[in-house]
Specification:
Helices cover 40% and strands 17% of the residues. It is α/β, with parallel strands linked by helices. Helix 10 (209-212) links the parallel strand 6 (199-203) and strand 7 (218-220).
Length: 242
Amino acid sequence: MDIQQHCIDGFTNLFRTNIYIFIMTNKCAALFDLDGVLVDTESIYTEFWDSIDKQYPTGIENFALFIKGNTLGNILNKYFPDKNVQEQIISMLKEHERTMKYQLFESVLPFLDKLCSAGIGCAIVTSSNKIKMEHLFAQIPGFKEYFDAIITEENVTRSKPDPQGYLTAAKALGCEPEDCYVFEDSLAGLEAGRRSGAKVVALATTNPRELLIDKADIIIDDFKELSVNTHATNGKISIVVS
């Protein structure tokens, strides 16, 4: 069996083996969701949206988790159609994000360094808006420079689980979707990654592992489980998960 076939089999047998090797022979890219993947903010947002749901009840169980991955516009239009309520929520969210402290997961920067050293393009694909991203980049100097493209709420017309954001990012990086890795934690985001045609890596930071089974090619707890190898003789790049 050649190594390319071995990699394909690795996807279908990912729960029966300990090491998986994904090889890209073309130009490839890594596409990252933001909250819950790169930045440890999920508990903060859960508290915020839980408080909103108490103030303006939607009747949806676990509302904060249910809406994860959606753009603000989609959330407001679908669950809070009253324009006055929308304005109040927007105001509260702006203040919330203005004072929020952004913290990267510990394994993020080492993994991004590996990707950059291997020449793999990186993009953020987030449902957040540009104002929030400005706050984040101001708090974490140098973080923005790791990314060749940043796709925000303003760059899409359809929210996750629609794949538009990931397809837009792949195009911006000059890659075919099937040559991309998508890193996601939310169910809507994982579906978006799958529908884009990319290889999907689920991070078990927001949802339990058992809920992620069959929704991604592999499941990891953090980026420490990943290594990036380049093969100078044949131009291939592999990501090894152990």
